[in-house]
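so i finally got all the pieces together for this one. its two components total, 454 residues if u count the protein bits. some of the lines might not be protein, just check the labels. i wanna see the whole assembly predicted at once instead of chain by chain like last time, that was a mess tbh
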Amino acid sequence: MVSLFDPALFWRYRHQLAAGAATTLALGACAVAASLVFGLCGWALKTSRHRPLAWLGNTYVEALRNTPDLLYIYGLYFGLTQVGVRFSAFTSAVLALGIQGGAYVAEIVRGAFTAVTRDQRLAARALGLRPWHSLVHVELPQMLRVAFPALGNQVISTLLGTALASVIAVPELTYQSQIVGDATYQYFSIFAVDAVIYLVLVQILTRLFHFVEHVWFGKWRGTV
Amino acid sequence: MVREVAGDGLMVAVAPYVGLLVRGAMITLEVSALALALSLVIGVVVGMVATSRFRLPQAAARVYVELVRSVPLLVQLFFVYYGLPLMFRVNFSPYQAATAALSLYGGAYMVEAVRSGIQSVGRNQWEAARALGVGYWRTMAHVVAPQAIRVTLPAAVGIFISLLKGSSVASIIGFVELLQTAVNIRNSIFSLSPLLVAGILYFLMCYGLSRFGGRVERRFRYGAVEAGRG
């Protein structure tokens, strides 16, 4: 009878788990980059002065925030082949998580810009700053300060979301753990190890964000 | 446009299955509501522990919340469904595993909602109640809870929405809820349309709830801005 709890599993399958963790991080990084792109586009649409564009942006944000991400992973991976577009599993996952995360990023960016009052913009213009300079030197720094913690949380939830990519066989951490579990029946141990790895990754990221926030915005004198 | 996405005009093909999808949505609602109720119990109990002055239980509550929030829901679900049965010789149906995992998941967020609700009530109110000779439980029930609910209830609606969305993850362990129903139908009629319909149903449930949440928030905005802790 084999032991049902075998933490040594971690050491035996360290190469697989390390490869999985690396894929998870790569997938997470790509998905975050994609979500920033989608998010900025969504925000630009949402705040557009043209009604139809603003409607489109709003629809994008609301539709994506109120539907599960797994739906998009399935939809992009299985669905688009029917219209002749074929993405790899990795690309599908990046796009699905990116589109979904983008909706949240758009909301975060919009919220942060509303926190920077109109007075700030007017004051900058009154001091003779061009719109571009006003954006870069006045609005953006203040907006970033508001948005940064929320964006940090968004990065973490995107990273956790990458676990779903295992359903379309992207060889990330959860997928690798499943493989190990299937081979050894040590599901308890392997998913415990899996959870700990995620925990460590998330904790490192959280600390990193706090550190960056502290360094960048620690001695802040702005109005926001 | 819908027709194009669905491919070959198969939007028609999904029509006979709409009833099935609605039933899937009901199952999604059911499991999410059950998980919400259980997570509310977890949230209130652990939330009160987290705001108590007992250090050790406080730390345990902290660990629970951090753990759940730092591990993907899918991994938690796998742990409950594949890990626990082998270890403790219990057997979970996908339904039970999904309910358990979702309750633990929602519970952690609920703990935070309850904790911030309790902490939104100023310390001075506890002191005033104590000065009047009112005990812990009665202070909690008659002074703190009615005010904490202003913060906790809107958050609970948000948690319900994430449980609704999160329950889709249970399809991976073979629990036939809305998403799995859609995938099954897709596999038999080879069209994207069931997923599209499922998306619409998810949207209707979640968006409706979030509108409802907005109303709840406005309704409970009584008492203006009470001096909170920070």
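Confidence is low (pLDDT under 50) at residues 1-7, 226-230 of chain B.
The domain at 17-219 of chain B is CATH 1.10.3720.10 (MetI-like fold).
anyway lmk what u think
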